[in-house]
Amino acid sequence: MRAASQVLEEHRVELSTLDREIGDGDHGENMNRGFGALVTALERDAPDSPGGVLKLAATTLISKVGGAAGPLYGTAFLRAATAVKDAAELDADLVAKALRAALDGVVARGKAELGDKTMVDALLPAVRAAEEAAGRGEDVPTLLKAAAEAAAEGADSTVLLVARKGRASYLGERSVGHLDPGARSTSLLLRTFADVASG
Ligand code: ADP
Ligand code: MG
Ligand code: MG
Q1: How far is CA 59 from the centre of its chain?
Q2: Which part of the chain is the DhaL domain (predicted)?
Q3: Cα-only R_g, the chain
Q4: Which structural domain range is residue 16 located in?
Q5: 13, 25 Cβ separation under 8 angstroms
């Protein structure tokens, strides 16, 4: 989460610039505020399990990010926390389950489908790649690397799509030609988790 906060800080301007093109220009600020608050909360009182950290991420992001992304990422982390229960460590199967639960949460909350030009276009392929990797018996770093690569490809695919959910959908066809900011932040998060897991 600390690494994620740092990466989101580095990409703050980029994410808000993407959001300025097809939204209201605040996605970088929103994500930064949320993950900054999460790092502060972790410094104050770090939970001693992965599930506890995921739950703290959920509650912090829900209260600090705002907009569309806050409740969506908050729900994603909350469902992930529920999926890993009180496991002391996350193996590949649990990481795949957590990612699937996160996606299900985003879809339950936002009702976006693949191709609607949202974070789902990054997260759904990532979940599929993670489940395939877990099925092959890969370790966590390999699984997360596969998920991150699929997310990056999925995020890039949003450039050609017409937005059907969120603020960008107000633009209709004019949203074509722009990368979706939420898909980009999802891709950045997964790449960071992969990098941290690889050590
Ligand atoms: P807001 O649009 O309220 O300013 P943000 O700018 O922080 O919120 O987040 C925008 C991102 O949220 C979009 O780029 C998109 O990826 C994601 N998003 C918006 N609506 C939905 C939805 N219904 N389902 C999934 N993701 C969505
Ligand atoms: Mg916005
Ligand atoms: Mg906004």
Answers
A1: 15
A2: 1-195
A3: 16
A4: 2-198
A5: no
Answer yes or no: are the C-beta atoms of 71 and 101 closer than 8 Å. Answer: no
Type of residue at 111? K
CATH code at 10?
Answer: 1.25.40.340
CA of 27 to the centre of ligand 3 (A): 7
Q: d(Cα 192, Cα 73) in Å, to the nearest integer?
A: 16
Whole-model pTM?
0.98
Closest CA to 182 of 92, 78, 109, 85: 109
- Alpha-carbon distance 182 to 190, whole Å? 12
In ligand 1, the atom with minimum distance to the C-alpha of 110 is: 23
CB 33 within 8 A of CB 65: yes
Query: What ipTM did this prediction achieve?
Result: 0.99
C-alpha closest to that of 37 among 59, 18, 20? 59
Write out pLDDT tens, residues 37-92: 999 999 999 999 999 999 999 999 999 998 999 999 999 999 999 999 999 999 99
Cα-based distances in Å from 149 to 48, 193, 199 = 30, 12, 17
CA atoms within 13 A on the CB side of 11: 22
Give distance in angstroms: CA of 22 to centre of ligand 1: 11
